[in-house]
Write a structure and sequence with these properties.
The protein is built from no helices and 8 strands. By secondary structure, it is an all-beta fold. It starts with 66 loop residues before the first strand and ends with a strand.
């Protein structure tokens, strides 16, 4: 046992005995490596199959269809905070808003459009109107109504 008399450092030299196996046992031998079967002969490198011919390019897109532009307006009516609407057309056009509203939309000619009018209170669009693309609609009563038209 070693005890440090004072301070935080000190040294002590000691000797450890070397532990050897008793003389009656022979020194251990390393194990023999396992016997593995011989490797197969080397194969020639694989060649990739011939590549398929490139696919033909898709045909060019047809020219853009002429569109119909219109100003869409929604009047305020008596309770504008209750009003909302959505116009969704088969050409992918989608416009929505509330009241009052004024904006422009362009729809491809021949598209079918569905206009959905909503009133959050459920009493209709009291004196409010949606106008656009030569159409004019209102929600006379209830909380929702839809109209479909083709341009």
């Amino acid at each position: 046992q070693y005890t440090l008399a004072s301070g935080s450092e000190g040294s002590y030299t000691f000797t450890l005995p070397l532990l050897l196996p008793p003389p009656s046992q022979p020194p251990s031998q390393p194990p023999e490596p396992p016997h593995l079967p011989p490797l197969p002969p080397m194969q020639p490198p694989l060649t990739p199959p011939p590549s398929a011919p490139p696919e033909p390019s898709p045909p060019p897109l047809p020219p853009a269809q002429p569109g119909t532009s219109s100003t869409i307006t929604v009047t305020s009516g008596q309770f504008p905070s209750e009003i909302s609407w959505t116009l969704a057309c088969t050409d992918g056009t989608s416009v929505s808003g509330d009241a009052p509203y004024s904006g422009t939309a362009t729809v491809v000619a021949g598209s079918e459009c569905t206009l959905t009018l909503r009133d959050s209170y459920g009493d209709g669009w009291t004196n409010a109107y949606w106008s656009g693309f030569g159409q004019q609609y209102t929600l006379a009563s209830g909380s929702e109504g839809s109209y479909t038209f083709t341009l």
